[in-house]
Amino acid sequence: MQNRPNVLTIAGFDPSSGAGLTADIKTFEALKCYGFAVCTANTIQSDTDFEACIWSEEKVIKDQIEVLLKRFKVDYVKIGIIQNWKVLLDIIDFLLEKNSNMKIVLDPVLKSSSAYDFYELSIVTPEFEEILDKIYLLTPNYSEIKAFYPDKTIEETIQHISNKTNVLLKGGHREEMLGKDELFTKQGTCFVLNPKNKNMNEKHGSGCVLSSAITAYLSQGFPLLKSCYRGKRYIEKVLSSNTSLLGYHKF
Questions:
Q1: What is the mean pLDDT of each successive set of 10 residues along the chain, which is 251 residues long?
Q2: Which CATH code is given to the segment(s) 6-239?
Q3: Total Cβ atoms within 10 A of residue 60
Q4: With CB atoms counted within 10 Å of each terminal CB, which end of the chain scores lower, N or C?
Q5: What is the pLDDT of residue 156?
Q6: Gap between the Cα atoms of 33 and 51, Å rounded
């Protein structure tokens, strides 16, 4: 039996399991990876309502990472919600100290799908610029890309970020051509990933699932573009799995 690659998610706990740690773990399992999970926040939410976010202490997050990486080899990490850019930078530095070749996929959740605003992440700080230099892929949606640099156009923001890291601009919040994703690489190339499945329904946590699916495919040795393409096909299956806000991961 072939060994599965190890993948780590560092994200919040969502009791509905549509987003966050448990959604990531379901994705990793479905895509034949072994998933580890480190909790950054305990949330009080359902698929439609978000009432509170209780952040984990930075030391606890690092201790959870430490005990895992002491025993297991992990080369690919997906990061979701985290308290602020400074804590995120500290966590990324901690990861890279343990494994300098680690590839990190950051899904920058500034606001939950039920409109809860993670206000500490709404303002870009010098730490954010350092973060961009150290991660492998950033996966913002249209609302998030607009929020990073309010004084820049989307095109200027993409140019700035893609000089530092690869960017997958998710198309789920586009006003036109809904579902069209665009991959901007550090090498200056843009690839368009158009939606294939037309029979899809909105899902809570779809951004989490997409970024964790891409991370899973990267861990299996697929190149970036192929991983994004396969990740998109996977999330489309989840989006079309039923008509509720909570998708299925076994089709």
A1: 90 96 98 98 94 96 98 97 94 98 94 62 83 97 88 94 97 69 96 87 93 98 98 96 94 73
A2: 3.40.1190.20
A3: 13
A4: N
A5: 96
A6: 32
227 token code pair? 């991983």
Q: How far apart are CA 139 and CA 166, in angstroms?
A: 9
Q: Domain residue spans in the chain?
A: 6-239
Question: What amino acid occupies position 169?
Answer: L
Q: What is the 3-state secondary structure (H, E, C) of 151-169?
A: CCCHHHHHHHHHCCCEEEE
- pLDDT at position 171 is 81
10 Å Cβ neighbour count for 196?
A: 11
